[in-house]
Amino acid sequence: MLPRRPGRRVLITAISVAAVISVVLSFGGERGVTGLAMAQPSAPTARAHTAEPEECVGSRFATFGAVYDAIFDSLLPKMPPEIQKRSASIKARAHRDMQGLRISKLAVSNHPHDMGADDESPIMTYRDPISQWIVTQLVNVREGDATESIPVENLTVAQAVETVWLYLYVTVMVPLTVARRTVPSIATVAGPISVGTLITLPILLGVFATTQIYKSVSERLVEACIVSVTRSEKENAGKSVKDLRFTDSVPALIRDIAGQVDLADPESCPAIGDLPLSRIVSRTSNYLQAISTNPVTDRQIAAMSDDVQRWMRQTHVQRNLIPADPADFTTAESAISQIGVLLPYVGGAPLDVVIGLSHNRNQGDNLAATAPISQLSVTKTLTAAYYAYALSAHMIELAWSQGGVDPAAALLNDLFPSAGITAEMVPKSSGIVGAPNLYGLVVYHNVLRSMCLAEDKRPAPTQQSTQRVPVSAARW
């Protein structure tokens, strides 16, 4: 049964199906976390035509099996008569194939809503494709599902969109961004505009536009009416099977970490990023003492912890002079930040500092107020580290461009002294220097803002805040 406006729905679902099939085919020969396996289905898998009521669902419950049937049924009237006669057997064979093809859960990234998040959960704001995949796998390990596999029949459109975006991000977006930051100026066209600027501008706009499109598609498909499914099909959406497990074991360290964390919720489990530094120092000290077998070492750890805590209580900083994190920028501030990287000298980190301080001021923060370091949150500390690293990399790049020698150009000049190679002729090293900040620290920070300590989890309020926006799972 197709929902209303079938042509539009079929187009959306067809695009999603094509995207996920490309992932399946691309990673079909891999092992480990991207492993796929073929298994014989234990029961007929074609969708049974029963009297069970159906509901029109969004991407969280729109499975490949349901999407395939919707597309097949919509195209069937236009197919040759011989195909129409064999339609039942064709569909049954396709469902058997989709049920037999299994994908490791470690290769799939889930939408936050599928992990129990709602519109107010921190992970909905603080996430990138890599951090979302890390959170997905920590939740899988915590729940004991890491070695299980999902039949393509049960794979959902939401899982497809998030997984395709993850691989696209890692294999295309990240390399393009790093490459953009390494393109030399080459030659000046007019004023501050160089040939390098003209080359990198399409990359900058393309990455930004693609990211915005993904966010819009991901959000809208959850609430959309994509395909009609029965209650049993809805219950199997995204579910793994028990008759096949991948043999790769999860390292003990990962299992230990996964057992200590859970998905953050503003009402029942505060994010690690919101915890004060004093809590982190105390917890680290207790952990080290717990694994130590030497009483003398225990006393030394406790003494050092007391010294650190005392120093943090006595040392005050102006916390609001730490600029707002770029993840907290408004849409307008983010747009200015993105376009501002093209400005010579001040674009990039210096401009982000100004935007971040302006953000603090606009939301009423007192820039002169001080607080002990012990009260600084993990997020404030990591944001300070982010800006410190970004400014350092920016200053190094300026030094190399104003009389200094870029290491790449210096190395080539040493290898080929008679070539006369200049910094404008080779890729800049600044792109690689800044990569650990963008794709290391930021990812780590997003994970800490998306997860909480399991020991802090408390029962959810009996009645959620009226400001919490429920996730629409389906429409009848």
From TrEMBL:
Residues 457-476 are annotated as: Disordered. This is Beta-lactamase enzyme family protein.
